[in-house]
Design brief:
The chain is built from 15 helices and 19 strands. The protein is of the alpha/beta class. The protein folds into three domains: 165 residues, FAD/NAD(P)-binding domain; 148 residues, Alpha-Beta Complex (Polyamine Oxidase, Chain A, domain 2); 82 residues, Guanine Nucleotide Dissociation Inhibitor, domain 1, CATH 1.10.405. Helix 3 packs across helix 7. The longest helix is centred in the C-terminal third of the chain and has 20 residues. The structure holds flavin-adenine dinucleotide. The site of flavin-adenine dinucleotide (FAD) has 39 residues, from helix 1, strand 14 and helix 15.
Length: 451
């Protein structure tokens, strides 16, 4: 007789969704969470004026139906990201204001970017979401990095600068760190590149009033303190023919099955008895997290709106590739959200907070004018430094990994099942994918328990 039917490791969206499904099916569950809070890669912060800002995952697109349904079920509400007016792009010291589909690029640059987007979209169509390693031409697509493909397909410096800003904005990693197959899988998993990068009609369309961390907080409150144990990092998982034993800071829990709902890079650091199959361990050795420091810069008012700017900016010259308006729904103060991503994050990660703030404010001033030089507040979160995340937005696959190790990403190992945004086939890497993965893992476990 085990302590519970199922242990869930990690109280992020994936783990809590799985626990909720299992409980609804009448199964006993224990969720063990390393941190002294739930919600993982979503995290609420507050400006000094009391306005809530999101320090982790925040935006939800209208095609992210699973997380949207959960938001509604839990009694939370959404509001649209401010997206009225022109955007700006900075390239080689020239600031371009635009309101069309050109991303503020020159005519030749925009045409070239459009051509590459169409070619990548056609290639993405050939990728299998459930088993990317079986895609037509998988070996060829996985042999090359995205950077190699881009350089082989264009010599246009502006187009390359565009991709070198957009790719870190999506992956917190550089084009040279992703296989072409992984990039294409990720695009198809979200629908299209336009959906991935878009605000209205795209992945950045909606925000949750009060912040997305509340989704996990409400799920955990529903489950109750008897189910969710905080401050209990899991160290090891042992299994045999009778049970699985999960050892965490507060002791050992026995169960029929365990769902590991933490990023693969962290799952690889647990001690397993017996040792994991080589393919699974090989995967976790090669799926590093992205690099990101998320910043929120506040002003007494969203001053950019008065000159007809939306707050959306692309900086092809600087460290903050993308900036958006992140003001509260009532516009009672102005907030610009930005990200140090990929190589920029690794450089900025060694700076002091003051130096990062000064660098960010200098860039915002170039983009939005002198009013940006006088922020009233600055908050940030360096996700690379978080012991129980070690980087965001998620894990990435470099050249050769999908085809050599991809099958081990979600394949259960005996009594161990894997969940988390990285294992999702739809909206991989996003909150919606995390919810879907929790649901999928719970279904897997219920099938085993019922058989
Ligand atoms: C800066 C940033 C911006 C983002 N922006 C967006 C966005 O706008 N929209 C979007 O949809 N997504 C966004 N994301 C991604 C999104 O937040 C994640 O995909 C999602 O939250 C992942 O959920 P998860 O449950 O899979 O993993 P996690 O949230 O990482 O949950 C895993 C949990 O496991 C715990 N844990 C780790 N190790 C152990 C251990 N050994 N023992 C016990 N517990 C452990 C962790 O503390 C954590 O609570 C962003 C992420 C970041 C960081």
């Amino acid at each position: 007789m085990t302590d519970v039917d199922v242990v869930v490791v990690g109280a992020g969206l994936a783990g809590l969704t799985a626990a909720r499904r299992l409980r609804a099916a009448g199964r006993s569950v224990r969720v063990v969470e390393a941190r002294d809070r739930v919600a993982g890669r979503t995290l609420g912060g507050t400006l000094t004026n009391g306005v809530p800002v999101e320090l982790g995952g925040q935006w939800i697109g209208t095609t992210q139906t699973e997380v949207l349904a959960l938001v509604a079920e839990l009694g939370l509400t959404t509001f649209p990201t401010y997206d009225t007016g022109d955007a700006v792009t900075l390239y080689r010291g020239t600031r371009t204001r635009y309101g069309d589909e050109t991303f503020g690029l020159s005519e030749t640059g925009a045409v070239e970017v459009g051509r590459l987007r169409a070619e990548l979209a056609a290639l993405a169509e050939t990728v299998s979401l459930s088993t990317p390693w079986t895609s037509q031409a998988a070996a060829d697509l996985d042999r090359r990095t995205l950077d190699e493909w881009l350089r082989a397909n264009t010599a246009d410096a502006e187009a390359l600068a565009f991709w070198n800003a957009v790719v870190p904005a999506l992956f917190s990693a550089e084009p040279a760190e992703l296989s072409l197959l992984h990039f294409l899988f990720y695009v198809k998993s979200a629908g299209t590149l336009d959906i991935l990068v878009g605000v209205t009609g795209g992945a950045q369309e909606l925000r949750v009033v009060g912040g997305t961390h509340q989704i996990s907080e409400r799920l955990a409150a529903e489950l109750g303190d008897d189910v969710v144990t905080l401050g209990a990092p899991v160290f090891g998982i042992a299994q045999d023919a009778d049970e699985v034993r999960v050892t965490c800071a507060s002791g050992t829990i026995t169960a029929e099955r365990v769902i590991v709902a933490i990023p693969p890079a962290l799952a690889g650091r647990l001690r397993y008895e017996p040792a994991l199959p080589a393919a699974r361990d090989g995967l976790t050795q090669q799926m590093p997290m992205g690099s990101v420091i998320k910043i929120q810069v506040a002003y007494p008012a969203p001053f950019w709106r008065t000159t007809g700017l939306s707050g959306f900016a692309f900086n092809l010259d600087g460290a903050l590739s993308v900036t958006l308006d992140n003001s509260p729904p009532d516009g009672s103060c102005g907030v610009l959200v930005g990200f140090f991503e990929g190589a920029h994050a690794r450089t900025a990660g060694s700076w002091s907070v003051d130096k990062r703030k000064a660098a960010a404010v200098a860039e915002l001033t170039e983009l939005f004018g002198p009013a940006a030089a006088e922020p009233s507040d600055y908050v940030e979160r360096n996700w690379m430094a978080e012991e129980y995340t070690r980087g965001c937005y998620g894990g990435r696959l470099g050249a050769g990994v999908w085809t050599q190790y991809g099958a081990a990403l979600s394949e259960p190992v005996g009594r161990i099942h894997w969940a988390g945004a990285e294992t999702a086939t739809v909206w991989n890497g996003y909150m919606d994918g995390a919810v879907r993965s929790g649901d999928r893992a719970a279904t897997e476990v219920l099938t085993c328990l019922d058989s």
